## 1
Amino acid sequence: MQYISTRGQAPALSFEEAMLTGLARDGGLYVPSEIPTMSHGDIAALAGLSYEEIAFRVMRPFIGDAFTDDEFQEIIAKAYAGFRHDARAPLVQLAPNHFLLELFHGPTLAFKDFAMQLIGQLFQASLSRAGKRVTIVGATSGDTGSAAIEAFKGLSNVDVFILFPHGRVSDIQRRQMTTPADDNVHALALDGDFDDCQARLKDMFNHFEFRDAVGLAGVNSINWARVLAQVVYFFSSAVSLGAPHRKVSFTVPTGNFGDIFAGYIARKMGLPIEKLVIATNQNDILHRTMETGSYTKSGVVPSISPSMDIQVSSNFERALFDMYDRDGGAVSQLMEDLKSGSFNVSQGALERLRETFASGRCSEGETMATIKAHIEKSGEVLCPHSAIGVKVAEEHLGATPMVTLATAHPAKFPAAVSDACGVNPALPPHMADLGSKSERVTQVPNDLAALEALVHERRAR
Ligand SMILES: *Cc1c(COP(=O)(O)O)cnc(C)c1O
């Protein structure tokens, strides 16, 4: 299995190389050269298996010879051992044809743990075998950073630096990043928004001298291994609702397009997914693009669903690559156009997008109203991101069962939840002392040279 860049100018890599590299050297994102498929029988045989066993069968064809079956099974077992629900990703019913996939039972209470815990184990296995050390730099709108720190803290072969937008993450998200005491963890509060964090991260990757000097590795949602880990719960949930004998649709609270792109991969592998519904908050660039074909940046407006406050949706490039028949030149041109603020999706590509994806947008008021309505209707306390999914899903309900992804635990966003419905969601007992631990954080300017100097200085040698 080889991985190729969406911009067509970087060398093809193995799974392990693509995982350790993150962003391709031509600025593109790695995707598998072809998508392995699972037959009707292969999918039917997943029924009744454990999450870990499904994970093994779904991901195995993508990893090539990076690990033996035994090694890979052990990696998966370690990755999900810290989850606090036996099903890992349980489904609960909201309405006759509407289900909620709870993805918040991992160590940092957001779906990011599914990918990050796995990637931590994959990095550890790969680096210790090769006797190598890497510097991980990540950008976060809140949940990726805490999940990365939780997954990599204390590991001997990595330093981890996390850039988050100063003042724009929730108290709990910040504390999850700033309270781990491990020496290899560095939380950096950047003066700017999430798109600035993401842009500086890309700059570091495109500065090859720096990239090679520190052994830069990326674990943002552009990392293929993260997308892959997320493919698994589309299978586990669809199968428990009757796939492959019945079709299922999904609604995904979307920011960087990583989670929903994993659903797209599941569909390409043969899982009978009818529609993948993109749910956005007021930062609705993806919804506007689906409606008009014009991908036009506007400023990020901070919302009560901060993990979706994004205007440049990195993983969307992977979808475009397919919609343009895997023409790296065409994708490069779109990304070049975006530097001046926008690009237009061709009519053909837009039609293809609409065959698979639908979309909707949810305002701040609607998010609050949905949280309130659901606590009254079903007793389910939704986090603001999940509420956006539920609201948009309700606009797309039909004969096919709908699964909405609940991307975070409500206790990660207590202010928004209690404003909406008067209930103050409690943190699970294992995290109850978060507010009393001391914090370690460095405030940094939105400046590439200053950031690179800091990474050089802080990383262990
Ligand atoms: C990251 C995140 C999202 C958005 O997921 P993408 O893969 O970036 O589209 C939604 N909700 C929560 C809680 C998140 O942490």
Note: The first strand starts at residue 3 and ends at 5.
## 2
Amino acid sequence: MANLSFIFCEILMILATILLVVEPVKCYSKQHKALFVFGDSLYDPGNNKYVNETYLKVIATMWPYGETYFKHPTGRVCDGRTVPDLIAQFAKLPILPPYLQPGTHRFTDGANFASGGSGVLSETHPGTVRLRLQLSYFKAVKESLKQKLGDEKAKNVLNGAVYLFSIGSNDYFSFYRTYPNASQFYKGKFVKMVIANLTSVLKEIYDLGGRKIAFQNIGPLGCIPAVKSFDSKLGSACADEVSSLARLHNRYLSIVLNKLESHLPGFKYSIFDFYNAFADRVNNPSKYGFKEGKAACCGSGAYRGEKCGWTTINGTKLYQVCSNPREYLWFDGAHPTESANFQLAKLLWNGDPKITGPYNMKQLFKL
Ligand SMILES: *[C@@H]1O[C@H](CO)[C@@H](O)[C@H](O)[C@H]1NC(C)=O
Ligand SMILES: *[C@@H]1O[C@H](CO)[C@@H](O)[C@H](O)[C@H]1NC(C)=O
Ligand SMILES: *[C@@H]1O[C@H](CO)[C@@H](O)[C@H](O)[C@H]1NC(C)=O
Ligand SMILES: *[C@@H]1O[C@H](CO)[C@@H](O)[C@H](O)[C@H]1NC(C)=O
């Protein structure tokens, strides 16, 4: 019945739109689950084009970013689709536009607040859309939904939605750059501070109506070409010092989410073990259909770790770019190719509990 009335409502809306009676709004249905995305450059759909800081505005706004799928640079730090783009498609939702993009938005589908350079802590990369600012945008979305749909239906949208996160890498890059020789004690303290701030944001999302949280945990940061290009002593090995911060974070993250589930009625979650999934691809690229797992497709210097897309004023390219990004795990010095993202998104969507658990995203959407 719900489906029939939904279809009926859709037809009415199309007619109404043709007759210009009402603005084209999406019909609300119980089947329709929204996706809200919080995060950093791995998930940014182009929000950075609209931020104040010029150094952030230009991230991935030049060729060859976007060459594979969108055919033009969109601000995604990738040759094509990112993980949340693919998850939206798996969930039969449209690809979510940048939240900061001017114009009307259909928040019944969700919203993507992710922004390159951002972290959990407000001290990380000043000027970025840090996690707390992303949360304030989510609060504005809730208000907008309440005005459009009324309190009850807005609440149903937020309760049914899935909230997807990729955040924390930038906090640890910043920390590692500032304190390369931090003691075990200070590393532990820092990770706890990041986790505490993250936890308080998750609790607020719960209080605002969020129930289903999904995380891509932090990847093997020391294997990132940009990190390796700065330390010639490493050879082809990964920098374990910074990866160890990621591992510690990931351990605390699973403890915290487990605790939240037992304390907050209706709270359900999913953690995709991006760390191990990606480290295995770096070490055994051919097992996953890649020719190259260490160097990036686009960039210059060791491992093509930097300057993808950079040109001089006279038009001289400062980078090389591979002819087939599908053969590469990394597109630029810190971000996977679309073909790598496709494998990652599939694991997040319906991976088995060893890699994505206790629920995967497909199951979260069905709950
Ligand atoms: C940009 O600046 C405006 C005005 O100062 C401010 O309201 C807004 O929050 C800023 N945006 C970001 C992303 O910092
Ligand atoms: C960190 O330790 C290395 C030796 O392990 C040393 O070469 C380097 O100067 C130290 N860096 C700082 C910022 O203290
Ligand atoms: C969040 O991080 C700040 C530092 O950015 C720290 O002072 C504060 O205590 C943290 N908040 C929580 C709830 O841990
Ligand atoms: C363009 O500028 C670069 C240095 O920025 C220089 O090496 C190169 O020769 C210049 N090319 C032309 C065609 O002027």
Note: The chain is about 40% helix and 10% strand.
